[in-house]
Amino acid sequence: MPLDDLDAVLALERELQSAGTRADPTRLRELLAESFVEVGASGRRWDKAAILDLLDAESASGDPDPIEVIDLHGRHL
Questions:
Q1: Rounded to an integer, what distance in angstroms lies between the CA atom of residue 52 and that of residue 27?
Q2: Would the pTM count as exceeding 0.85?
Q3: Per-residue pLDDT for 2 more than 70?
C-alpha cells in the first residue's frame, strides 16, 4: 500500500531522527534540501552545512544522544 504524501513526509522525518541516518552523511545529503533551514526553540538557526557539521561531530563523539520520537503527526496545509 503506497504512502500518501503526509505519511511519506512523516516517515522521512522519523528516518532523519534515527541514529543510523544521523551517522550517514551520504543519506543526510540526500534527505536535506540545499535550502534546508531549521530554527530551534531557542531561536537559533541552522542551515544544511551547519547541520551536517553538527551531526558529523555527534557521530565522531561515538556516543550520540538517542532521539525518541513520540506522537509525531502532521497535517496538510
A1: 11
A2: no
A3: no
Helix, strand, coil: what percent of the chain each, to 5? 50, 10, 45
* Segment (H or E) for 38: strand 37-39
Contact 74, 9 (CB under 8 A): yes
CA dihedral sign, ordered 2, 48, 36, 65: positive
Per-residue pLDDT tens digits for 49-68: 999 999 888 888 876 677 88
Residue 30: count other Cβ atoms within 10 Å of its Cβ: 9
Q: How far apart are CA 61 and CA 18, in angstroms?
A: 16
Q: Using CA atoms, how far apart are residues 9 and 6, in angstroms rounded to an integer?
A: 5
